[in-house]
Design brief:
The structure holds three protein chains of three kinds. Helices cover 75% and strands 0% of the residues of chain A. By secondary structure, chain A is mainly alpha-helical. In chain A, helix 4 runs parallel beside helix 13 (290-318) and helix 11 (235-271) packs parallel to helix 12 (277-287). The longest helix of chain A is centred in the C-terminal third of the chain and has 37 residues, at 235-271. Chain B is an alpha/beta fold. In chain B, helix 7 (184-201) links the parallel strand 7 and strand 8 (204-209). The radius of gyration of chain B is 21 Å and the shape is globular. Chain B starts with a strand and ends with a helix. The mean pLDDT of chain B is 86. In chain C, 74% of the residues lie in helices and 0% in strands. Chain C has 14 helices and no strands. In chain C, helix 5 (106-142) packs parallel to helix 8 (177-203) and helix 5 runs parallel beside helix 13 (283-311). The two termini of chain C are 23 Å apart. Classes of the chains: A mainly alpha, B alpha/beta, C mainly alpha. At the A-C interface, helix 1, helix 5, helix 6, helix 9 and helix 11 of A face helix 6, helix 7, helix 10 and helix 13 of C.
């Protein structure tokens, strides 16, 4: 287990290093590049004195390294300050939007993984048939189609033409529950969720399906399956062995997938007017609400990195063969 | 009654390039408690034979003729369910691929228990006791019961495989090149364990190998296969007084069989392509004594001694063959 | 982004040439181009690959001949006989794909838009493939500290969420095509670098490299003369993926309203249409740019798929 500990330590150090690097890049972009954040709410009517006060208030007159250290401390402790325009702490806004994004992503990913993995192991088991080849091609096809256009078309057909689903948003106006959870488990929410979820799934189902198919093919060729047959195990039981082996790489895949969805989510949230973190970032950029921009960006990067970390660590836990050296 | 009787067995592989008969008209029997060894170069169909007996041929292969009679029941005609009834409980396999023979993500014990559960309902204690007993039999420490396959060395994995093969006390044990990929000292240990199975547990055994000394030391019956066909078949006499030129050639390749110190001679060239096998004797292209007759007509299987048969057109000249086969120059003629 | 594979146009191959010494310079380019045309032939031997190449060729011709094929300039405002504006007109003989809410011809805009798609796809792909390959080569071959530093940079690059990052940068600098392309390059090189590096790690152990080193060949020469040619197929593959990813990313950024305002691209058309509510009212404005984008991206996918199969015969049976 010491090997694992050393690996864990190394992995955590890398995790921390990358976070600091990403934060530094963000700092550099927002402060060193031309453009003074105070210019947003300082207009020409402000007197010299008022401008100076604002600069002091936001700490912009301190030397850059003081600003940098303060920024680092704030970011690492999730102290994001207050929004320029919404009279609310940024952390509250971010948490709420992140929850909304997760409310769309998590069910989609769960369903996609179950469907995709089942489809994939079936494909791997039945390889060589015409139907299998066609399905694989369709999957690859679905994966390379720009999903935001799929989203637009779906919206056009099912919402505007057929009127089956609301054209966007997370709940109807005045709808939803009193709390996050009562909202998420309301029928109104589900009604709003279905379209964006379907669009997300058309893409997300392909990755586990294709992955499981190829690992299944690999597992099918392995010697131990022959021994399992020779042992007189029923077909179902052999499938269990094969699937368990084929599932290992899927764990990594799911985590990496989650990371990618969190950043690609922006497009779907715009199309379906979903009040998630991606949409919040775009809105904040339009408003030049920098505290929200930097917090949203940081949280999205953190999400990706955390999922990658989880993927790496989880892999060692579920596969007894992984050796840490 | 014979435990296993193979009758005119034919196994065909269908590939994109055509179909190949990997086993072509093979017949032999193994009686209760007998130990039969099949030898031959790689690709002669001996492993295919083992797979066919357990009904685990790869999808491309199928039994295209003949019978595999286990205690009178034709295994080739059984469906999966019927086979599952006999597999492991009656016929167990010690495979060639011990390295990858265990599922890497389950513990060894779990995999042995799984074999028991597939056929019987034993209480947990009985399973545990039986597995411990088997571990002791093959010389594995009890402390390793909960290990994963990757924690075992190659030799330990093969011993665990033997333990798993014997756990249900099967009637027939098929060992398919059980020492492949192991180093020499470990090979000896494994072969010693397998010999014990026969000597102490009185199992009926089928050993498939290219290791002639092992067969000649251990087995009561010997089958020499070449390119899907039996060349010679009989008791220990097959190696003591070989009749077939191929057997003579094989014996040359091993030092301790001839008895005297001399240069080892190996048979030049390689076996024929089974996608388009030559007419006549399959060994003709590599046989230093081959005549036109050999290249045209397939030699019939003839009894040379009671219980000892060989498939050669020129059995009458065997004395000359034996003399000349000991000379390296004879074989150089082929190359 | 899922990565896939393919091959692109002639100029890419020449640009991808590693900076080798003068000796045998022309010969090496010749070999590179030879390898390139033969991979095109391989791709064309697959039905999907041939179809993909045909579609791409169609778009290339369309982009090159835009001034002659397109009835109008991209921002021309169409007016009727009595000088009234032709706003949001459905397809007709005068405007085969209808008009936008600013009375512009959708058909012409789609044709002009193909230029942006090709330009972004090609430059981003070449840039990222070259950058990624160079980093992968150095990292894998020299190992040690060089490898550590380059791979940590790669790790950081993998930690940056592309779309949000690009949006932040573009909102500060203001949208421009050059910056969009630079951003896409900065995003795409990382995968190529990792893949090339692991390939180099195995190549480094091959006997012919030992032999070259024993013969006293300089390190740089070994790297660019002996190792680099062996990673070229991989580079082409990732270049093709890059074309696809580049086109998609530009479309995504433009759709979010961060496209170059002086140019018309498919993504930007979708942005304008979406903002104008055309999804509800004017399907003819939404579908042509969207379908063109999808068709182009899928054509590249078909080419990459064929190239991938040719490179990795195991896939063929799968």
């Amino acid at each position: 287990m010491t090997g694992f500990r050393r690996y864990l330590l190394r992995r955590l150090v890398l995790f921390f290093f990358v976070i600091v690097a990403v934060l530094t890049i963000l700092f550099a972009i927002l402060r060193i590049l031309p453009g003074d954040p105070t210019s947003i709410f300082v207009d020409s009517n402000f007197s010299e004195e008022m401008v100076r006060q604002q600069r002091v208030l936001w700490g912009l007159d301190d030397p850059w390294w003081v600003q940098y250290l303060r920024y680092m401390r704030n970011m690492l402790t999730f102290d994001f300050g207050r929004s320029f325009f919404q009279n609310q702490p940024v952390s509250e806004i971010i948490l709420e939007k992140l929850g909304n994004t997760a409310a769309m992503i998590i069910p989609s990913v769960i369903i996609s993984v179950i469907l995709g993995a089942t489809l994939g192991s079936w494909l791997g088991w039945k390889r060589g048939t015409k139907r299998e080849a066609l399905t694989v091609f369709l999957l690859l096809f679905a994966r390379s189609t720009p999903s935001f256009f799929v989203g637009i078309v779906v919206l056009m057909i099912f919402s505007y033409w057929l009127g089956w689903f609301p054209p966007g948003g997370m709940v109807s106006i005045g709808g939803g529950g009193d709390s996050f959870w009562s909202t998420v488990f309301s029928l109104d929410f589900l009604h709003h969720l279905i379209l964006p979820m379907l669009v997300l799934m058309t893409r997300e189902v392909t990755s586990p399906a294709l992955l499981l198919r190829s690992t299944m093919l690999e597992v099918r060729g392995s010697d131990f399956l022959e021994i399992l047959r020779a042992k007189g195990l029923p077909e179902k039981r052999i499938m269990v062995h094969a699937t368990r082996n084929a599932l290992l790489p899927l764990v990594t895949d799911i985590a990496v997938m989650m990371g990618f969805i969190f950043q690609g989510q922006v497009l779907l949230e715009i199309i379906f007017a979903w009040p998630g973190i991606g949409r919040e970032l775009v809105t904040a950029l339009g408003d030049l609400d920098y505290p929200i921009v930097q917090a949203a960006f940081y949280v999205m990067a953190l999400t990706i990195l955390t999922f990658n970390l989880v993927a790496d660590l989880l892999y060692g836990v579920i596969d007894p063969r992984v050796v840490y050296d | 009654m014979a435990v296993l009787e193979i009758k005119d067995l034919k196994i065909t592989y269908t590939t994109r390039k055509g179909s190949a008969r990997a086993v072509d008209g093979v017949s032999f029997t193994i009686g209760e408690g007998e130990y039969l060894g099949i030898v031959g170069e790689s690709g002669c169909g001996k492993s295919t034979l083992a797979k066919a007996i357990l009904g685990v041929l790869p999808p491309a292969g199928r039994v295209s003729g003949g019978e595999i009679l286990y205690k009178g029941e034709d295994l080739a005609k059984l469906d999966e369910r019927g086979l599952n009834r006999l597999r492991w409980k009656e016929i167990a396999l010690i495979p060639q691929s011990a390295m990858n023979g265990f599922d890497p993500v389950y513990r060894i014990t779990e995999q042995i228990e799984e074999a028991i559960d597939a056929h019987d309902t034993w209480p947990a204690e009985r399973k545990k006791a039986r597995i411990e007993e088997m571990f002791a039999l093959v010389g594995l420490e009890r402390s390793r019961l909960n290990d994963y396959p990757h924690q075992f060395s190659g030799g330990m994995r093969q011993r665990a495989m033997i333990a798993m093969a014997l756990v249900l006390d099967p009637t027939l044990v098929v060992a398919d090149e059980p020492t492949t990929g192991l180093d020499v000292i470990v090979q000896d240990q494994i072969l010693y364990r397998i010999k014990q199975i026969h000597d102490r547990l009185r199992k009926t055994m089928l050993l498939i190998t290219h290791d002639m000394p092992v067969v000649s030391e251990n087995c009561d019956k010997i089958v020499v296969m070449y390119a899907g066909k039996i060349m010679e078949y009989g008791g220990k006499a097959v190696f003591r007084t070989p009749y077939h030129p191929y057997t003579l050639g094989l014996c040359n390749a091993f030092p301790d069989l001839g008895g005297e110190a001399r240069d080892l001679i190996s048979i030049p060239k390689s076996p024929p392509d089974l996608l388009s096998p030559p007419p006549g004797c399959r060994f003709a292209s590599r046989c230093p004594f081959a005549t036109d007759e050999c290249r045209k007509a397939e030699p019939p299987m003839r009894e040379v001694q009671p219980g000892h048969v060989a498939a050669c057109h020129h059995l009458d000249q065997v004395e000359r063959f034996r003399r000349e086969a000991a000379e390296p120059d004879t074989w150089r003629r082929v190359a | 982004m899922q990565e896939k594979l393919a091959d692109s146009g002639g100029p890419t191959a020449a640009a991808a040439r590693p900076p080798v010494r003068k000796t045998g310079f022309g010969r090496r380019i010749g070999r590179l181009l030879g390898g390139f045309t033969s991979s095109l032939a391989t791709i064309a031997s697959y039905p999907t690959g041939a179809a993909g190449l045909a579609i791409i060729a169609f778009f290339v011709v369309l982009a090159l001949s835009a001034p002659w094929v397109a009835p109008h300039a991209p921002f021309d405002v169409l007016t009727g006989e009595s000088k009234q504006l032709l706003r949001l007109k459905p397809p007709s003989a005068a405007a085969p794909f209808g008009t936008t809410n600013q009375s512009m011809d959708v058909f012409s805009q789609v044709i002009w838009g193909s230029r942006i798609a090709l330009l972004v796809g090609l430059t981003a792909a070449v840039g990222s493939a070259v950058l990624g390959t160079l980093i992968g080569l150095f990292s894998g071959y020299f190992g040690g500290r060089t490898d550590d530093i380059l791979m940590r940079i790669t790790d950081v690059a993998f930690g940056i969420p592309f779309l949000p990052f690009a949006l932040v940068i573009l909102s500060i600098t203001g949208p421009s095509l050059a910056i969009i392309i630079t951003l896409i390059v900065c995003f795409l090189w990382r995968t190529t670098a990792r893949v090339v590096r692991s390939q180099v790690l195995t190549l480094r152990q091959r006997p012919f490299i030992w032999a070259a080193r024993a013969a006293g060949t300089s390190e740089l020469k070994i790297l660019f003369v002996h190792i680099a040619p062996n990673v070229l197929p991989l580079m082409f593959l990732y270049m093709a993926i890059g074309v696809q990813a580049g086109v998609m990313l530009e479309a995504a950024l433009a759709f979010l309203g961060f496209g170059d305002p002086n140019l018309i691209s498919w993504g930007r058309m979708l942005n304008l249409a979406f903002k104008a509510g055309a999804v509800r009212t004017a399907w003819w404005w939404v579908l042509p740019p969207g379908l063109s984008l999808s068709l182009f991206v899928i054509a590249i996918f078909m080419v990459t798929r064929a190239y991938e199969e040719a490179l990795n015969p195991r896939l063929r049976q799968m």
